TrEMBL record:
<dbReference type="InterPro" id="IPR000922">
    <property type="entry name" value="Lectin_gal-bd_dom"/>
</dbReference>
<keyword id="KW-0430">Lectin</keyword>
<dbReference type="GO" id="GO:0030246">
    <property type="term" value="F:carbohydrate binding"/>
</dbReference>
<feature type="domain" description="SUEL-type lectin">
    <location>
        <begin position="135"/>
        <end position="211"/>
    </location>
</feature>
<feature type="domain" description="SUEL-type lectin">
    <location>
        <begin position="27"/>
        <end position="117"/>
    </location>
</feature>
<protein>
    <recommendedName>
        <fullName>SUEL-type lectin domain-containing protein</fullName>
    </recommendedName>
</protein>
<dbReference type="Pfam" id="PF02140">
    <property type="entry name" value="SUEL_Lectin"/>
</dbReference>
<keyword id="KW-0677">Repeat</keyword>
<dbReference type="InterPro" id="IPR043159">
    <property type="entry name" value="Lectin_gal-bd_sf"/>
</dbReference>
Amino acid sequence: MWLEHTPTYTFISVILVVSTEKVITCASSSNVQHLSCDMGVISVQAALYGRADNETCGEGRPQQQLANTECSLEGTVDILKKRCDGKKVCEINIKVVRTSNPCPGIYKYLETKYTCFPASKSRICMTLLVKQNVGQVIFVYGADYGRRDQTTCSYKRPASQTENVYCSHPTSKVADSCNGKNSCTIEASNSVFGDPCVGTYKYLEVAYTCICK
């Protein structure tokens, strides 16, 4: 596998360890679930917002709030995957997944199962060209267009264009364009991904690997 692009603007790290984790966060309004990979990037495998047993997050709760153990909010895994796949660290507030109430009167929790997969992780200021070896194709775990630090892609940029480090826009467009292909080119620009933070100079972060056909 090899990558071809402008070296000045792209930073690559290859990660080699795989592990599987499960995190449970009780559904208080201020609670934040934290997912992280010491090595590798996050790939969410399953997620439940609701209740599947009468013990989890049940301490001090009356039995009637724990009785429904077949409570699950549809679409929870899609929310987690969109926000977290391809990242080393992901924090998500319970409020984000609580789009509706699947079981009124039941005290709920968020349970997420994820795997830390080996991946190449790139940050691209301009254009990314990925080419795999013969017999291999691209698989994108996740991508994010925005800005999460002040140093990446900051050369000759005024401070006003790099100070917003809370600009994050997860996108499936890289996976849609590149998955299953031997090579792929994509431009890191507002015309492709939209503008999640006007006035901020943005870059594209992509986590991907190569797989055999």
